[in-house]
Q: What sequence folds into this?
């Protein structure tokens, strides 16, 4: 699994989206094929996801 580095201002999966340090809630998806949460959140890749991002 690729880790997001604090010095990298872009998401490794969607390079056009900027990262934010202002977020609330966190979910870890290990196996999106078997995860009910990934179905609800439309997550297709294993990884760590913020649930609420505050954009300023």
A:
């Amino acid at each position: 699994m690729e880790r997001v580095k604090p010095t990298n201002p872009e998401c490794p999966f969607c390079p056009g989206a900027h990262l934010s340090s202002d977020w609330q809630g966190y979910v870890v998806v290990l196996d999106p094929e078997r995860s009910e949460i990934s179905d609800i959140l439309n997550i297709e890749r294993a990884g760590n996801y913020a649930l609420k991002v505050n954009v300023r």
In short: The longest strand covers residues 23-29. Residues 23-53 form one domain. The CA atoms of residues 8 and 34 lie 30 Å apart.
